[in-house]
Amino acid sequence: MRRSGTGAKLISVPYVVWAALFIIAPLFFVVYYSFTNAAGQFTLDNIHLLTKYIPTFLRSIWFGIVATLICLLIAFPTAYIISQKSDKIQRTMILLVMLPMWMSFLIRTYSWMAILQDTGLINSFLVKIGIDPVHMINTGGAVILGMVYNFLPYMIMPIYSVMAKLDFSMVEAAQDLGSNRINVIRRCIIPMSIPGVISGITMVFVPSVSTFYISQKLGGGSFDLIGDVIERQFQQSYNYNLGASLSLVLMILILLSMAVMNHFSDEGEMVI
Amino acid sequence: MKTLSKIYVALVFIFLYAPIAVLIVFSFNDSTSTVVMSGFSLRWYKILLADGTTLKAVYNTLILAVCSSVISTVLGTAASIGIEKYKKSIFRSSVMAATNVPMMNPEIVTGVSMMLLFVFIGRALRIESVLGFATILIAHITFSLPYVILTVLPKLRQTDKNLAEAAQDLGCKPVSAFFKVVLPAIMPGIVTGMIMAFTLSLDDFIITYFTSGPGFQTLPIVIFSMTKKRVKPDMYALSALIFLSILILLILYNIAQVKSEEKIKKKRG
Amino acid sequence: MKKITAVILSALIIVLFPFNFAFAAGDAEIEALRGTKLYVYNWGEYISDGEDGTPDVNALFEEKYGIKVVYDTFDNNESMYSKLKSGGVSYDIVIPSDYMIARMIKEGMLEKINFDNIPNYKYIPEKYRNLDYDPTGEYSVPYTVSYVGLIYNTKMVEEAPDSWAALWDERYTNNILMFNNQRDAFAIAQSLLGMDYNMESEYAWRTAAALLKEQKTVNPVYVNDEVFLKMESGEAALAPYYVGDFLTMYENNNDLAFVYPKEGVNYFVDAVCILKGAKHKRAAELYIDFLSDPEIALANAEYICYGSPNSAVYENPDYEYYQDELLYPEEGAFKTQLFRNLSPETLALMSTLWDDVKNYTPSGFSNRSLFFGDETASSGSAEGEAMTKQTVKYAIYIGIFLLLCLAYIIFRYARKKYRERV
User: Fold this and answer.
1) pLDDT tens digits, residue range C227-239?
2) Which of A170, B125, C111, C301 is spaced 20 to 30 Å from C57 by Cα?
3) Shortest Cα distance, chain A CAs vs residue B31, angstroms
């Protein structure tokens, strides 16, 4: 038995090598570029420049928090309702949740523009039924909507997969013992689905904070998110060093907040 | 309560599918506009089917998604089995921490850092044009791996350890015990992980943007490069076709499922 | 019209090609290139690709010479430059804009073209040769020439604008679009200020940036390709964009009109260049010559809708935009300026200033927003103050959120302790 154990241990070696090469090594490049200038000499200039971007960082984090909370509010009941259906319906519904992700998110975001515009679908409908049009596109709200739309499946999936595995005999027992439905949800289902919620929060918060396409298309480009600034440094200004130091700070911020989050999950490992 | 929950789910699905409905409608537009409907026509579908560049990009995207999901599933499943053997140890926790990095790292940082690494390797090995299919593939495998591992690992934990041992006691070799007993048990996790990896690879734009090279552009890159010119309804037509084909697959899958369930019932009956 | 020309053309090409082919086959050097690959890097949607019966230029080239064209697209000059400069990719042919060509020449990224191999260069008239960006004319062959101008919706403006100042007009607040591209955006401010686009003085750039910040009071939307969508649907009243693209927009919305503002506009040339280290320079030259071929150039000009520097195209009466007033305006009818390469310091300054412009919030200005998170600074006068206000606002939001989280954790902990005691 012991031998099969070491054999099994060995088959994780390719992955460990892979992770060291392609996950850990690239991070050193980010650090290296953050502390050098274009000529490759050590400098702290990039770090000094960062103070200018504090408002952008704060805005991105705030937008990320709001989008994540909205996703959570929408996804939790959805995942719960789906997990209550029969196996066959569950499968279909989960595939339906994932299906939009198979179409390029660039195109889907584009399509939102046509819906949200002043002359878009919603507003022409409002005008038709005699209500004043509402200005929606090019606001912070539109950007958050874009984030919620694009990342909602990432919240539904992990919460659902935890709920689907829940032992409902416990729930039934609680109900037998006279707990009402709300109490069952509060006392049993919410605590038990925490690992899924935490994975979901990670998978929504991280891309929301760092997105750049959504803010350009739906936000009208009149305010930056940190992803926009980083993208511009690499793609337009050819300033890898500033871009890398912005990335480094963003990475540290996110890893820190996620480390705190993960503290609440007993397993310490994420669930999908 | 029942109706309320039905309405709620319906609303969520309307939200998820509203832009898709819009793009399907505009894919039948007669003019080049993606907002002003001027008449029904199949023009964009014809254009799409004649457009070699776009079809090549679709082909690239699919090949990439298939390769990266298969490789990351194999690599990730193997890794999970190995990791699972190390109960609580520093090795295990550090490997898991590394695994979480691509998930927690902003995509843009992952993309940029991988590009910097590839360029460095390219310079060291004197490869002239290092970015290309291989680098995108490596990048896609890297960001899909955590998803595979994190879906397979819980399944492994759920399977009964004694099962494999019992099979070995009954004369199975460790390897065949694995394939006959453990693998079927964790199959659902593997399939979910693979679908996840496939989906992520299909939809990824940011990481591909930084790691792509000559001769291998995926669909999102082609769409993004229309920054100076317009996005035309042929892209909508393409999305509509993708949507339709997946929907058909889904329906067929469901029908097959129902039939096989009926068969099982009959057998039992 | 466009369709008919295209059909006739492609028929013509098919008929003519066997001859060309027989002719080309005689050349042993060209014959040796058969089966090689040519890597081309061009703007998105910037070549006739066989859509709607138009000729597929790359396919025709492959057919004629047996050289495989590997064709990739980029979204702007800077990202193309970054990609090439990163050292991870190598192409043979690239089609940058004027100022980028100058920069690439200066940095030794381009290869000199052997014009003996480009007989079709004869169609490029003197006025498009040896321009500022390539004074000796050794590195590039012009592909498109065009102008930036002001597009407006006649139903939405009170009077037809004739000045860039319309983009600062408060009557059109929320209905103004602006370039989401540093160089083009700055050029508009510089035109208004009567400045040269290529000044190296820091003061001049700061003044232009200040003007761009001032524009924020009309809440402009910064766009690239979305300009099509927004102008065609009547979402916006005014937008600066390329004249060729106005022509496509006009097809979808006849309320649109175009004007060359009196302060002057940017005149740009996108030209074909060979990159240093191109593996098959001869093949690249064949490709460049092919692009300048009258029929191919005509197909491209009609597909892209930008002006063509090819005399065989713009003097061809069958050309869809033959003597088009907008695409080929009279020389000297308005002031034009080319972009030139700027020094690295000025480029760095421009990009920092652009970051500032994008994140600037004018004081006392409110965005009529439906949701929270609108970019509003309620009062205050100094520029810095608005910036700090923003920071404080988000800091407070995030702070409150963190406090709530903390309070909840403490509450849980206390409750747990309490229960344990009971």
Assistant:
1) 998 999 899 999 9
2) C111
3) 15
